[in-house]
Amino acid sequence: MLFPGTTWHIHMCIVVKSHTHCWLQRDLRRLLSNVRRVQLIDPRFGISRAMASTGTTFCPPKQVQKMRELKDEDKLRFRKEVVLPAIMFPANLISRIVGCKTIFDFTIKKLSNRIKPIMDIPSTSNKYILFEPDLLNAEIRSQILESVSQLANISLNFEERHIIIEYEDWSAKQCINAILPEGILFSGFSQVGHIVHVNLREELLPYKLAIGRILLEKTNNCRTVVNKLESIENEYRFFELDVLAGEADYIAEVREGGLRYKLDFSKVFWNSRLSSEHDRIARKFDRHSAVFDCCAGVGPFVLPAARRGACLIVANDLNPQSVKWLRENIKINRVNIGKSEIQVHCMDAREFIRNEIAPQIVVELHRLKQIRGDGKESVEDVKDRVIKEVHIVMNLPASSLMFLPYFRGLLFGRIAKGKLPISITIHCHLFVKANADEEEEWYSEQAKKLVSQHLGCGIMQFEEVHFVRKVAGRKEMYCVSFKVPEEILFMEENCAEFNGKKDIDEEGRSVENGTSNLLTNDERSDRRHFGDKEEERGDCVPPMKMARMESVEGSDLR
């Protein structure tokens, strides 16, 4: 407790974003979902405020509860009349009081374009300021009127205004939570272009049609609402989609960081929440970088790398549909991404590491040696194509650890052992899961430990251990960046025999001692909320044909 022995009143709460306490934020959002404003107030500083509003004034009427379908005539059931305290002002005086906390801490929140804190009075030059009835008591009313008198030099009084709230005025969140039974809340949704997608828990399924129509009508630029089903019935582990409302059009276009991406949402994976991570990694590249993306998806790392001027980009994905849309996105953005050389492959990531990354690094090393040595090409002549650093992005956190053994002996027998003139950096996204509550430092240390174990290197120097996001209460996503030690690159070892405790069969099952266990959808689930747009979802993980697996769970990062 911040101040032991004091009494706290909840008036307004600002929940600070902290990945360590993300689970607490989530629970607070649910527990306080009906609280008008929440803020911790210390009575030692002489601040006196009313208790928090329960928010019942601005909730749809109870008669809509358990509504399973939403027809046009059903929208009338959302109509509600409320009586609000109000002060009528001459319009020319409003500017004097706007920004006064004593007044506007107690006004209503904007509900819609029609219902907001300051409303016009038709056919007059006056305006109303509307207040939350549950936040006002006699003392606060007196303070507000005193502030008005001081600021506007006018004496006014409170009066009552009757306001009719229609279906169109309620938010999607208010409507959906109103139709659900007591104790059940809608966790949220995500939007990719014109597609809104949800992952409805079993108890929400009876209300899916009403939820779908509400989202369709109340989400900007939405034409399609889909629910991700539990079953995965195809080679590339797509989730089957159930159209809840709108048209079955899955070809979406999204914009991220000034770039356009087209994709078939039913065939590939996209997560707009990861835009900051895409940008963070891309900022590490420059015109002397070679970038190898092992699981490129539709290009959220590839295209920013090209725009940063990386002189060589080699992209790969196992999913042919991802490769198709990656090629399309390269064409769409060619003006913005410059003239970077971009190669695109479609193969398993392990094969890509051994058969594409290794040979291309060798070619560039020989070329660099030639430039520096015999003078046939001067550095000035090829300055835009000189590679000084190699970046390898492994952005599949469910599986990236399994790719690390394939870097053992990557250059053995290909070039003479010695100090390399270029650096080779891996950016490995992975999940860290705890069995009990742990401090923040434990997760970052565990991330480093997992990388060291799977790479087979006891002592490592890590450039960066970056927290990406909280997946669940005891599960976090990290990106570990490190330069591959030369003793790993040149070691004489068959990577396929390394660290082989668990395999993954062609059906995506973990195998140990000849037995297999199907990875559950819960192991790939994630949760999204209204406040930070988190969603509960499963993820599309390609089938593993060659790799070893220790303890891997979770989702794609594309």
TrEMBL record:
One of its GO terms (biological process) is tRNA N1-guanine methylation. Its EC number is 2.1.1.228. GO terms for molecular function: tRNA (guanine(37)-N1)-methyltransferase activity. It comes from the Eukaryota. InterPro entries: MeTrfase_TRM5/TYW2, SAM-dependent_MTases_sf, TRM5-TYW2-like_MTfase, TRM5/TYW2-like_N, tRNA_Gua_MeTrfase_euk. S-adenosyl-L-methionine binds at residues 278, 317-318, 348-349, 395. It is an enzyme of class 2 (transferase). Pfam families: TRM5-TYW2_MTfase (PF02475), TYW2_N_2 (PF25133). One of its GO terms (cellular component) is mitochondrial matrix. Residues 521-539, 547-558 have a biased composition (Basic and acidic residues). Involved in mitochondrial tRNA methylation. Specifically methylates the N1 position of guanosine-37 in various tRNAs. Methylation is not dependent on the nature of the nucleoside 5' of the target nucleoside. This is the first step in the biosynthesis of wybutosine (yW), a modified base adjacent to the anticodon of tRNAs and required for accurate decoding. This is tRNA (guanine(37)-N1)-methyltransferase. It comes from Parascaris univalens.
